[in-house]
Amino acid sequence: MTTAKKKKASSSKKEKSTNDGAGYSSSPTQLLLRIFPFWVALIGIFMALYWKESNRQQSVSSLSFPEATSLSDPNVRVAKLLFLACRRTYCHPHLQVSKRSLRATERIPQGEKLFEIPRSMHLWDLDAYRDPYVRKHLFKASHKISGNRLSQEAFLAAYLALELHRAEENPSSFDAIRLAYFDSLPTYEEFLAYHPAVQDKDLMNELLGRSAAQGVLQGYRNMINAEWEAFSAASPHFENMIGQERYLRARLVVLSRVLHVGPPGPEEVMAASFIGQQLENQDLLLDELYSYQDLIGVNLTDASGGGCIALIPLADLFNHHPHNNVDFQYKKIQPNRSGRSFVVSAVHRDIEKLSEPMASYGTLSDAHLYGRYGFNNGDGSGPIQLSLAFHHDMMKLNMTNDQYNYLPDSGTTSKFRNYQKRGLIKYLMYDDGYDGCIPGPTTHPEEAELKRLKLEHLLRIANDYERWNMLVAPRAPDILPAVTSTIPSTFSIPQFEKDFSYLEPGVERLLETCRMISLINGDFNGRAVAVLKENLDNSNFIIGPNVSDALEFRSYMCVSRWFGTRMVTMELRGKLNAEFQRLATMNRNAFGTFNWTALQVKLGEMQASQAGSALIFQRVSERWEDKKVNAEVEYTAKDLACPEEYATFLYKDDESSSGFLYY
Fold it and tell me: Transmembrane segments in this chain: where (predicted)?
């Protein structure tokens, strides 16, 4: 190509390039101006993502743990769980681990969400029933004494024990968060350090004496042992593979951490092949749930019955106080998406900086808090249980969800009836309202017949918990929780005031029992025998408060005698002040220790017994002042029981056994 042609071609290319640019300048400054908005947008997006990730890291930064720290430390194990879980789900940024619980690093306003825990992290009893091993080996388990099927908590504990064993054998089959949750749970050795259910029986007898708390604790121990026996009898393979210590650990985890989630929703539906029938989709879940009611007696469909129970990581880190500032809800988070999450929120008041958020486990007496969870707040905020059934063993134990009783679900048997009869007779051996004692049917046939009928009615209510037990109102009902459960909210020991309302409404149900015990032939206008005969088969029969003044007097004296007997059985006389001083010292140098907790429970019951006795006596003195001297015979109450031989006619056909209730 000639030089002239090359110049012409070059000129043509420059012209074309200029035309293609549509008039835009190709200078560097103008190019930068063109792309600057895009760079700003990209930087903005990057900063937003960085800010979001920084917040997430901040939310778990206080939960992180030093690599060199041993995972045998419970604090570190719990921190590891939160560190992993909070990368996957929502955690409030101002919470940190503190001695198996949580503490706020900044003030958290009321209404803010603390955790959002998806179903995938939970361990439900529904999961247990669906487990092939549980279905094959454990569904047939039943209690030896009563023949009753096992509870939801028992099945969840067995399933947890199996899952812990599987995680040890094959950890790669489990999600990292599930493994961290298993690691965070208290070990058997850690339970030994504080939970009374695994302590030496003689030690607990020494610490609690003959208190209601000791009876409640024995009920929990019997329940756990009975469950283990039932599962072992149903499956020797389960017995050999898991072992009693592992089951006990799992059972205490469930006992102290389980939460209610209500009836399962449609998102829990399983494949039709699981049930064995081809059904329409909307019927699958209900059919499955009804099958559990048929197979193992568990009702998961009724919200009033509680529905399902679950172990829920993170949510089980909150301690208890009646004045809680944390609440739980299992609900949908996004209306347009299926599935629900367990949401923990701040309620009632703000969570102050450096304070421990508190949940409420419900209205439980100090005795049940101690027997079930192994702790006591020690601030007088909880009600105190008094058991006045000191002559007979109750077959119904008032466990949560009625999960364990000695009495068969189908009703009583002659064995249980005879076992209780000998104790119930002792309540009838004072013959109040009569001039002297009633020797028996030979000399006093009508009086003896009334006593026999009263015994029949007492046998009918022998296991009605509220007819023999009462909750005494809290000594300090308005006290708020301490900043943290590791320090006392007050160093002083709460006490009862002289106010009869502490005993209401529970004392009315005790009075109803004492009205039956204190009935004499002249009551009901001389028709007492006929009235009791007519109502032998009436399970709802009560005498009621509309009775003669004399019967009401005798009923109050009966309750007063019960309180006095309780004080004697607890060996209170001369000991209350010494125990009070001992606890005052421990509040300062042994707060939260095992012995401190046991003494808190025992002393509260001692105080309640003394206060109850004094308040009942005060009520009698005020109401029946004119009956203190020269009272009519129907206004008399005996200090001592009548001779035992006067009641021998009531022991007819008694084949009672003893001692079969305790392990």
Answer: 31-51
Distance from C-alpha of 618 to C-alpha of 623, rounded to nearest angstrom: 9
DSSP summary character for residue 591: T
82-113 pLDDT, tens per residue? 999 999 999 999 999 988 899 999 999 999 99
Burial label, 502 (beta-carbon count in 10 A; 0-12, 13-18, 19+): buried
Number of neighbouring beta carbons within 10 Å of residue 37: 9
pLDDT band, very low/low/confident/very high, at 350 (cuts 50, 70, 90): very high
Beta strands in 225-311, from DSSP E residues, in sequence order: 259-262, 308-311
Average pLDDT of the chain to the nearest whole number: 86
**What share of the chain has pLDDT > 90, as a percent?**
67
Q: Strands, E, within 375-430: which ranges?
A: 384-387
Distance CA 76, CA 70 (A): 8
The pLDDT tens digits of the residues spanning 441-481 come to 999 999 999 999 999 999 999 999 999 999 999 999 999 99
Phi (first) and psi of residue 444, to 5 degrees: -135, 70
Sequence-separated (6 or more) residues with CB below 8 Å from residue 402: 396
DSSP sequence for 325-349: SEEEEEE-SSTTS---EEEEEE-SS
Contact 619, 382 (CB under 8 A): no
549-569 vs 506-518: helix axis angle to the nearest 10? 110
Pair 530, 571: CB distance under 8 Å: no
User: Which of 165-174, 282-291, 328-337, 500-509 is the most confident on average?
Assistant: 165-174
pLDDT one-digit tens code per residue, 394-428: 888 777 767 888 777 776 667 778 889 999 999 99
pLDDT tens digits, residue range 114-148?
999 999 999 999 999 999 999 999 999 999 988 89
Mean pLDDT of the 181-208 span:
96
Those residues with Cβ within 8 angstroms of residue 464's Cβ, 6 or more apart along the chain or in another chain: 396
Cis peptide before 441 (omega within 30 of 0): no
* First vs last C-alpha separation in the chain: 113
Task: Say what the pTM is.
Answer: 0.85
Q: How far apart are CA 342 and CA 314, in angstroms?
A: 10
Listed residue (475, 505, 511) closest to 490, CA to CA? 475
Secondary structure, 3-state, 524-552 = HHHCHHHHHHHCCCCCCCCCCCCCCHHHH
Residue 234: beta bridge partners? none
Alpha-carbon distance 234 to 241, whole Å?
Answer: 13
Please name the helix (run of DSSP H) or strand (run of DSSP E) that holds residue 116, with its range, or none: strand 113-118
**CA distance linking residue 183 with residue 81, whole number of Å:** 8
Strands 101-104, 113-118: pairing kind = unpaired
Decide: helix, strand or coil at residue 163.
helix
Please provide residue 602's backbone torsions phi and psi, each rounded to the nearest 5 degrees: -65, -45
C-alpha count within 13 angstroms, C-beta hemisphere, residue 642: 21
Instruction: Decide if 141 contacts 233 (C-beta within 8 A).
Output: yes
